[in-house]
Amino acid sequence: xxxxxxxxxxxxxxxxxxxxxxxxxxxxxxxxxxxxxxxxxxxxxxxxxxxxxxxxxxxxxxxxxxxxxxxxxxxxxxxxxxxxxxxxxxxxxxxxxxxxxxxxx
Length: 105
Fold this sequence. Notes:
Layout: H1 2-12, E1 21-22, H2 31-34, H3 38-41, H4 52-64, E2 69-70, H5 75-81, H6 89-100
Parallel strand pairs: 1-2
């Protein structure tokens, strides 16, 4: 999705249209309970959780500034989630799989 958003941003830039991809980490909402996803969120570091209000505020600020991508939250969240974009998928996919499997770590 991120690469698609960046491509659309580049394509629409000459027309005065900006595109901002919002890439939050975990957001504590009723989604986890409704989808029985607590097994996944319990494995994540709590400092990576960002409130829905913070996600909305950071997303709007980034869009107003014409940024192509934003990771909502403070510096600790961005430092922990941001590098994922640059790590090879052969390294990140097994970790993601382990985190999302039921009965994992």
